[in-house]
């Protein structure tokens, strides 16, 4: 029961925001329509149950007129049932896509807000494969929540409606055992209850492991798909290293885990299906076994017997609701757990950015420099990495940051950009200033080249003439004819061409602070020097901070900042002078 309550509380927390959102009117209207139609279908089932009594009595009595009349009644009820079922499905699917669109938009907004998507990765596997959670899990959550919710409501209403009918039929057809009559009030109701409780308990006992198995299956499937995507994205490097055999082995191992877990699901599902099918088949004949002695004792007519069987089936089906949908509920519970984990991971990533144990990102209206105060950058596990205090990056400066590999140079840039939360101290940036980070391998979205170069500006933010000028200036005139071509540019272009495109992006955006994290390392020294001279010429008002290992870069920078080890961390030294007071 604690597990059920916890699951329902999680479902409510995930589902409720939509019905309080700006789309709540449409959502509530569609949900109400689906519920009203479901209640109407239960009403039709009640009318069909009563119709069975009249129809089979007419057959027993060979009453032609009543037979023809009841055929007409059946046609009306059947046609109504068809119309209601069709429109319930239509409105249900309409509600599903609106709900899913809102949840997807919400998750995308929260996941992509303020570098949460990056910080979520730093927590490891607590929210693995966010792509699957936003696509498959949201879709399944909406579908299963509606199916199970509406199905449960239908089961309750059906139970209430048919219990009264079955109770009355119990009095009209008292229990007969070995020729003796026993007046047990509502014995048909009690029989259905005992049958359903027995079936539900055994179903839970047999099928409970499916919840964890389904959870792991979704995770393993997503891991396998993710690694296939990684092979596709890095196909050139794999081909150059002749790594096909190694990749095939890795992928086969991951798919082997998918297969092993699937075999476990198969085994458990076989047992569950064997029981539920047996249970369902036995339920067809069970009510007739109970009421047949009364029929042969001439206590009820054929119509009453058929109505009893139909009513018993409705009550038993309602009571056995969880038996019939157990497999779907196991999958649903796994989906709920994955979405809950995703929300918790996003909340944790957001808390990292503003929590007491995080680096403070501040702005200053009266300041014209980026200031690091009592800054201590840590790894996610708490290990100290880089410290700095009283260090400033002044406007219009050119600074070169050097140091051994693994000293934390790139992580320092991440902290200045405000995406690395782990540590203490503060980074103060001038108000309304613009920063741009160019990594060693820049990112280009799949799409037209003009939009890829202008990223993250919206499409059309820069004219084709501006983009052409930037491409020509950085030494890529051959790409000017391909501005409208859509392609995966990170795969189409060489690392050197990609880095030239990154410089072209900086020229277009003209940020006030430009951070180059080995952003020209794939180029030869003359080309690198030409691009730095280009930045000096085209962006004279931009402060440039570079990470690099080539000695030739010193000629293009005014200050050289070195990361040197001090105890268990690295500290910033400015031209031989220690600017860090941390030990």
Concise description?
The protein is an alpha/beta fold. It has helices at residues 2-15, 24-61, 64-111, 116-122, 130-172, 187-207, 210-233, 235-240, 244-296, 302-319, 321-324, 326-354, 409-417, 449-454, 464-473, 489-492, 495-509, 525-538, and strands at 175-177, 180-182, 360-364, 369-378, 384-388, 391-394, 398-402, 423-430, 435-438, 447-448, 486-487, 513-517, 543-547, 559-566, 569-574, 577-578.
Shape: elongated
In CATH terms, what is the fold-level topology of the largest domain?
ABC transporter transmembrane region fold
Helix content: 55-70%
Give the radius of gyration: 35 Å
Low-confidence stretches: 576-583
In terms of DSSP E residues, the strand content is: 5-15%
Major sheet: 12 strands, mixed
Distance between the termini: 54 Å
The total number of structural domains is 2
- Mind telling me the CATH class of the largest domain? Mainly Alpha
Strand count: 16
Q: Number of helical segments?
A: 18
**Which structural class fits the helix and strand makeup?**
alpha/beta
SSE inventory with pairings:
Blueprint: H1 2-15, H2 24-61, H3 64-111, H4 116-122, H5 130-172, E1 175-177, E2 180-182, H6 187-207, H7 210-233, H8 235-240, H9 244-296, H10 302-319, H11 321-324, H12 326-354, E3 360-364, E4 369-378, E5 384-388, E6 391-394, E7 398-402, H13 409-417, E8 423-430, E9 435-438, E10 447-448, H14 449-454, H15 464-473, E11 486-487, H16 489-492, H17 495-509, E12 513-517, H18 525-538, E13 543-547, E14 559-566, E15 569-574, E16 577-578
Helix pairs in contact: 1-12, 2-3, 2-5, 2-10, 3-5, 4-12, 5-10, 5-12, 6-9, 6-10, 7-9, 7-12, 9-10, 15-17
